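RESIDUES AND SHAPES:
===
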Amino acid sequence: MVQSVWGAVTATTKGLQGGIVSVRSALSTHALAALLAASLCGAGTVAVASAAGAATTAPRPEALLARAASPTVTSLSVSTINQDESIPATVRGSGFASGVKVSLGKGIAVAVKSVSATAIAVQVVVARDAVQGARTLTVTNPQGAKDTLAHAARVDYAPVMAKWAVGDGAVNWTTSFVRPKFFAAPTLSFSGAGVSVASESLVKGGRLDVGFSIAKDAAAGWRTMTITEGSASWTVPEGLKVRRPPVVTSVAPLGQGAASQTVRVTGSNFEVCKSKEPGVAVSGSGVSVDAVSSALGNRMYVTLSVASNAVLGPRDVTVTNCDSGGVSTSTGVFHVVGPPTITSIPPIAIGVQRTEIVRGMNLTPGTSFSTAGSDVVFSHFDWLSSTKIRATLAVAGSAAIGPRNVTASDKGGASTLNTGVLSIDPLPTETSASPKGIGANTAIVLTLLGTGFEADAKVSIGSGKVRDKALLLSPAVVDSPTKLHVVVSATTATALASTRITITNPDGGAASTLGFATNPGPVLHVASSTTTEGALLVTFTRPAGAAASEVYDVVACTNAALSAKCVHVNAFKTGRTLEGLAPGVRYYVAVNALSTATYFASRSAVVGPYLASVRLRAPVITKVTATSTTLHLYFTGSGNAPKLQTYTARACLDAAMTKGCLTRSHYRSGAVFTGVHKAPYYVRIFAVASAGYLPSSSKLVAA
C-alpha cells in the first residue's frame, strides 16, 4: 500500500493492477480523479469519497492517460527565421511528453533541448537553401499523437549586405545590411586574415551600418561571415567577397604646361559603377586630376593638368575603386616629360596622302606636328606610345622635292624644330614593258624600265584600282632605280582585256602609264578515236579575240606536267585526229595558241588523261554445236578488252554472210540461235567498239 497526502487529500491505493482505490478528500471528485490519473498506470476501479462521506466513481485511469498523450500547440517564441540562422526558441502549449519531436519542414533542423508539459526548448537551424515563406510547426509525442500550428514562423532570406564585395586595401569602406533587421548590434566575424570590422551602427528600423578595413594584399575571394545577435547566430558561407585591388600598368605621359588633357590609363580590376568613377591621384606636386571617365575593367580615361614648372620624371598613381573601395598605388606609371622630339618619318612622294608612324621621344597625346608652308599637312594624330604617333600626312603635288624640317609641339606649349626629318620624293616613271602581254595558262618574266624605282616597290596589273585576279605576280625584284622585273603567271580564268601596269614605291608614289594585254586560252575537248588505232580526236574553241587565221599546236604527253613521252602536232586551225600515240596508253593534252603581232600566246587548260584508241584482239570461237533447230556458239573474248566488253554473234547460210542471216547481240561468252534450218551455217563473233577500243571479229567458222 502507498499513501500520499496532497493538502487535505488523503488517497489510499491498493491493488494497482486491478485492486480497489479509495479516496477521501474535500476536493471535487473530478479534480481528485484527474490527480489520481496522473499517478496511476494500471486498470481497476477508483472509488472517491467526499468529506461528507458521499462516494462517487472516477473515470478509468487509462482513459485519462490517453487524453494526456495528445499535445496542443499554441505558439512559437520566434516569428521570423532566416536562412543560415541558428536560434533558440520555445514552443508553448500543453500535453508535451518526454521524447517529443518538433518540425518546421524541409531545410530546417529543430533540436529539442528540454521538455515540460507546457513548454519545449529547441534550437532552430535554418539551411542556406531552405525555401522562403511561411512554415507550419508540428509537435509529435512519442505515442504518435501530434498537433500543428499553421504559419508558426516565416523563413526569410539569408543575411545580405547592400554591397557585399570589398576591395583589397579598402579603408573605412561602409555598407548596410539589407536583411535581416536587427534588434541589437550583432557581433560580426569573417574567415581568413585581413578583414576587420572598423565600425557598427544600428539605425532606427533595425538597419545595421558596418564599416570595414581590409588589409593590403588580403587574399581575394569569398569569406565566411558569422553573425551573433544575442542567442541567435548566422553562418553565411559566402558572406563577403574580397576583390583584387586596381592595378595601373601605364598612363599616357604629358608635358609641362598641359592643361585639361585626357589620357588613357591601362591596367586591370577597374570597377564600373553607375553613378561614379574610380578615384585617381597622382603623387608629387604640379599634377592635378580634373576628371575620371569610362572605366571599363582594363582601361579608363583621366583628365590631367600639369603645371609648367612640374618636376620632370615618373610619378606614382593611386586608384581607389568606386564600388568595393579597393585601393592600390602603382609606382612610376605616369611621366611628366620634356619637349617632344622627332627621330624619323617615312619618306613620302608628292601628291600622296596616307597614314604614317612618326617616331620620336617625349611624345604625348597632346603632341602634334607641322611644317612651314601649306604644301605639307599633318592631321589625325593617334598617340601610340611615348615614342610613336600615328598621323595622316598629305603632300601637295606641287610640293618641293627634298628634305623638310618638322616641328613637334605639345598643347602645353613645349616644342622642338627637327631638321630634315622628312623627305619629299618625286614620283616614279614607267617607260617600257617587255613583253607587253600574256596568254592564259602561261608564265613570263615581265621587265619594266623607268625611273625612281625604290627598294620594296610593288607591281600590280589591272584596270584602275581593281587588280586582275586571274594574274598571279611574284614579289618585284628592283634591279636598279631604272629597272625591275616580276614573274607573271596567267591562270585559266584569264580573259581578253587591255589593262595597265602600276608600280608603287614604299613612299606612296606610283606610276601607271604602261598598257598590258591579256588573252584567254582555247577551250579544249578530247575523245578517243573511233576509227584510228593509237589516236585521239582533238577539237577546240578558238580563244576570244583570236584571228580566224590563227594557227595552233597540240601536245599530248603521258604526264600532267607535259614532259614525258610527248607527241606534238603543229600548225593546225581546227579539230583533228592526233595520231602516232601508243595504243592503250592514257595521255594529257593541251593546245597552244601561237603568238602573232596582235595576240599573245596562250594555252588551254591541261585535260586528261584520255585513252589513245586500241584495236580489240580478235575473239576466238572455241566450239559450235548444232541440232535440227538450234545452234550453240562458244567463244573466248578479246584479250585486251575492257571489263564490260560485249560481243555480237552472226550466223548465215553462206560464207559471204549475206543469206539467211541471224544476229544475236550483247553476249559476253557464248550465243544460242534457235529457229535455224537444217542446212549448214557459217558463224562469226564480233567484238563491239567502245570508248577508246576499236572493233574486231573472229575467223569465219562453218557449223
Confidence is low (pLDDT under 50) at residues 1-67. The longest strand covers residues 232-243.
